[in-house]
TrEMBL record:
Peptidase S26 domain ranges (all copies): 38-224
Coiled-coil ranges per UniProt: none
Enzyme class: hydrolase
Family: Belongs to the peptidase S26 family.
Protein name listed in UniProt: Signal peptidase I
Native source species: Streptomyces armeniacus
Region (Disordered) residue spans: 1-26, 190-211
GO cellular component, one term: plasma membrane
Amino acid sequence: MHTDEPPSEHDDTERDRSPVPEEGRRRWSRSVRFGLPAVGVMTVLLLVSAFVVQPFLIPSSSMEPTLQVGDRVLVNKLAYRFGNHPERGDVVVFDGTGSFAAEEESHGNPLTGLLHEAGAAVGLVEPSETDYVKRVIGIGGDSVRCCDKRGRIEVNGVPVEEDYLHRGDKPSTVPFDIEVPEGRLWVMGDHRSDSSDSRDHLGRPGGGTVPVGRVIGRVDWIGWPAGRWDSVRSHGAGEGTGTDRHG
């Protein structure tokens, strides 16, 4: 039989002793205890990535054999600070917006974009579609042409011996003869037959060159996989090409 009797004092005491609130507090305490260090570590990683060294995941074969698909490289973001400039032969990561890629407004989900940027910042996902990795062949003021009678690229009239090229590749099958504007770079992939680089953008503003201000940093190390640990040398394109000029 149902009755409308008010709850007794005994019932209130039993509710007060319920373990549910205490268990909730313990769960909250554990979440805070483990969550705060994780947030702290992520914050430090993002700060280091933003200002010092940023991991990048290599998504294509355009820089083979130097960089392989799936390599995680460490980009030195301090390399061109304090008055330093990109040199011929440097392997660089740059934002190709306006030179290699059209400037378009983003219409995607802002949250998705933010999460992708955070993942890319620590090398967990592929970089932005407008980020590229190439080797610097010419700097501001250089004359770069393809090719001499032996099929070699010339920089300031001096043939460049490119021992880093993909096996079987020619230095270029596309002829060009350009003067690199001051403050810009002529860049090419080491896998010339599978690289979209300055040669493919000759008709764009800047004639295929990239503004120095768009360079994110210099690729100095391969950090992963473990069997690929190595430094990335700047070589070949910077040797014997006349005076050192910087854009």
